[in-house]
Batch of 2 targets.
Target 1
Amino acid sequence: MLEDKNPQRTSLAELGEFGLINHITKYFSISHKSTLKGVGDDAAVLDASTKQTVISTDLLIEGVHFDLSYMPLKHLGYKAVMVNLSDIYAMNATAEQITVSLAVSNRFPLEAIEELYAGIQLACETYHIDLIGGDTTSSTKGMLLSITAIGKANKEDLVFRDGAKPTDLIVVTGDFGAAYLGLQVLEREKQVFKVNPQNQPDLENYTYLIERQLKPEARKDIADLLKELDVKPTSMIDVSDGISSELFHICTQSKVGCKIYEDKLPLDPQVINACEEFELDSTTIALSGGEDYELLFTVPIDAYDKIKGNPNLSIIGHITEQNQGLQLITRGGQEIELRAQGWNALKES
Ligand SMILES: [Mg+2]
């Protein structure tokens, strides 16, 4: 589908690896003082400064993590950067550099790689990130994309998963479930397209869902917001696999339990409508959908006045003693045990 849309095809073999790297990286510029040497030498050089260095890597594989029949390459490039930046922001750190490694089969022409890097470049510009290196190689089948993000933070600003204490409030940014439902909409359209390629999809009612799936944004703004509010989280994690799964990580590592409230989960109206249409339970989707790339953190209870009413933040519950377990309080007041049924990259589909 994708390749057919592009009439111009330049084979990667014509350029060679160095030609390709030069061709792609000429559009990127360096903007951080800490980047002493970027692309073009045997290794990049960063100024270590007096701060702590924060590093995170992700590997994305075609057919496992993304499907190019509905994921445009530019969006894939953008999203792959977001996934990594999100992990850096979840440490309450600032992201500054990335490296990008790519393996592609000869089914991809140069123009496809340009599209992918256009998305990576847009993300770098928008989030003020330097591309400082990486590798490009051929694969026998499909595409593999690995990105490493490098950030920094003052030692006293870093936030880990293991600092939550009983009575702490559990806070989330943004809303949940939209990216998962966006994927369901795109999957459905793909099936319709297979049956009738003439069929033009009507996606008007799903714009927010599809945008959240194809062009997620990492929460770069939250570290600054928390500074402004004068709140330091006791623990923090980014929500890539659904709220349940991330709460399990926080509670396990902090040796605590938690109580969250069904009626406090922030949902977009499009999520509620799509759940009705797909006959899905919106709470389950919010808790287990995944790919929201929002942040979940805990704050001491005396920060309540600073957090409440902020349009970016929702208080969804509180931390309890470990022996209380992980509980969801339903709208009807019933207590049910939370299960970590987050999206699992290794599970059989
Ligand atoms: Mg993470």
Target 2
Amino acid sequence: MTNSTSSKFDDHDVNDDELLAACDDVPLKKPDPIVPIVEVASFEFPFEPYQIQTDFMRGLYSTIQQRKHGIFESPTGTGKSLSLICGSLRWLFDEIQSWKDEYEELLKPIETKNETSSGDWLKRLMKRKEEETAREKRREELKVKIDLEDQYANAAKNTLTANIKKTKRDFDAKYRHLFNSELPSKSDGDDPSLSKDQFKIDNDDELSDEELIIKDNDCKILFDDMDSPTKTDSTGLREKKVHVQKIFFCTRTHSQISQFIGEIQKTKYVDQLRLVALGSRQNLCINESVLKLKSLTLINEKCLDLQKQKKEKKTTKGKRQKTACGCLFLQHDRVECLSNDILKGSSDVQDIEDVVKLGRELNTCPYYATRAAIAAAHLVVLPYQTLMHKSTREACGIEMRDNVVIIDEAHNLPDAICAMHSSEINGNQLIDSYGQLSRYHEKYKARLTAKNLLAIKQLLDVQINLIKTLCSQENLPAVYDTEKWSNLVVSSNKTETSSTFDLIDYLSDAGVYVNLFQLIDYIKTNEIIKKLHGFMSKYPVNKNQQSEEKKTNESALQKLLQKQTQKQSQSNVVDEEQLSKESTEKRISNSFAIFATFLEALTNPRDDGKIILIIKETLGQCSIKYFALKTSSFFHEMVNEARSVIVAGGTMRPINEFIDHLFLACGQPEEKLFQLSCNHIVPTDNVLAIALPLGPQNIEFEFTAVNRSNTAMMDELGRVLVSLCSTIPDGLVVFFCSYDHLQKTYAYFEKTFVLNKIVSKKKIFMEPKRSSDVDTILTNYTKSIKNGAGGILFSIVGGKMSEGINFSDELARCVCVVGMPYPNIGSAEMIEKMRYLDSMRLKSTTAGETAGRAYYENTCWKAINQSIGRAIRHRGDYACLLLIDKRYSKANIPSKLPHWLANSFHQMNNFTETSNAIQQFFVRRSNKPTSS
Ligand code: SF4
């Protein structure tokens, strides 16, 4: 066990020359900087490509062709997405064409050579026979692939999109005629628009006790099996389909998926491409009764549950007929038809929103239509989570064998993979989930079978044992009481402390000896999450409910009087009730599902992660975290199965981290790796990057954790910012290392009237705490700049404005980073990560370098590079980048910056020099015409 007393990931920094020196980016042992020549007539790039774009596409094409893996870096604004699309799709369609060419070739008879000697005719005959057999075999293989391509291409043409424009009546009639499949209709088929009432499903809170009680072998089908399109069920949706050669493209967010699809629409490939974008049921479900459950787990469970129900409905002739599925949006013919629409390949390539819209028009499930489309699709676009998580991947029927995987925005991929596989549960969630299960047990114990009672008892034991690892056993009140347990004081220390454990040691110390795999299987098989949710909705425990119970005992007269008084204050009551209901619902929905997810994380292999106990003042505030450490464990299968895995991003430095953690650690040989780092298309003189070690009064900047409250330094920073507001035109974005640092500095500037000076030059904006406010702030910031009032936007490195936001042109003529955003070296996670990396034998580390220290350093630089990458978004863009801290003046700093920036980087000795350089930069720019 290890202990640490520092807070979680608060930004910290280290003033350590040795550390910086030790962590220089180390080149790959056998660099392969030469972009291979590939025989491609045209990549069909929609514009005349720049040389770096051609290099990128050639590099990508040959990497896939040679079945290698690749790491591609190309700065934002250099057309990276289009280069990825054109390079990979050119390869895909060339590959398909090569099958046809080879097949044609193999149909020709073998040329006979003019053999004169007759001695070894038997040998020649045997050889020829062998050759013919091999040709025959290859011909058959190719025929299967070609036929499959043709079959799916023809199916994709067989769409009914045109009919959507007609009335629903005509459309439905056409469907009936084509498929002889009856559509659900409002009343005896008179009204073709579907009645919403027909699609109403039972709410969980309407479930009877009988439905809530777990039976033996209540449900034999597990989530994943139910969801898998490779199984066959009564709907026929899960018939095994053969997959064509394909490319999986994944990126981080749904908005990035939309942008990517927008780029595809600019290319000629769109006409022949079969594309599908995947999303979760939360994004794609159109059954309002299911969607209202809000939590993804419950939506998934409800949908799967519906598929097990066979519903009876009246036909037009008054007879009762069983439908294929409890959800009437899920009918095989219609789903297949919608999947053809999705795949049809034209300028109508479907984004997730388009698919949902189409699904609603057709009253057909978009979620299953997209899954039905995977097998035939050339290109599957999907979010990170779906591809990286094995069970999700399998549930979607994604087959990676021999296919190409492209992961864009991969700059944080190793950490993102670990974060996806980590899991945390806090004291309140544990207490809640224990309370729910205890109440369920208490209510139904007389009606549950011995087997179910045993399983529930085991789950309760695990829950209570985990709770007891957060507090001392003697202090925990013997009788369950949510409030008392949650508020139990477990530490007199106001700051949190953490302890780290080996997974098996932790479980053993906690007294958890049961088979966790079986318990997880039990939870899934018997739908415990759904049953508990239904139970808690039917029998809620909250103050409102208690008062309701009291009310029912009051006399009718009292009720009448009460109603009259209530009327007057109804609006307030509704609001309060609504808020209370929402928070109770959230609590009910989530706690057991979170417990189940956490339990699953505990089944990971011992060496893949650690357990971290985070102790705070009360039991409810404490938490238990499973911290996944070993990226390769979760990436191994993908990299070994796929034909090529391509990771790409705007700033991929240090590339060695990807090589070590993603590829070499997964057993891939160095010879199988290709890396390409492209320059920017922006001319060097469009960027001015400066390290600023001191301000106008020569006060040095060193924003270490202990220094940040230094008032002399804050005053000096204020002077710099006021000066910049006079020099920099339009927008200025200033990144601080943490919210705390920004808030303190802002408050100080307010007190010392620095803000007054700033506001006289530029309007002030602050990064909001809530994500939902980001759009409003950005819109107002943009408006202010467009109106000529300018703007200064205070933001956080690694915050909401530092990724995925495009501050092009006048939105950011200058980006400043104040201080260095080192992660908290004392946090339990960082200690464990560094220790784990130190224990690995990384090939790229050099003498004197420790992998853990390099990781620590790189985490800081990745965050800086992401922030400064917000500016300079296209060839004609220009901006000044200011790194404010004396630690940026070290000699090795250029090696930490993106390649393209290193040549524009200057270390200045004083503020006057800096200020003059900035002024001259903008004077030069104002004399140049801007091109985009
Ligand atoms: S089948 Fe489709 S529409 Fe119906 S509940 Fe499931 S996801 Fe929603």
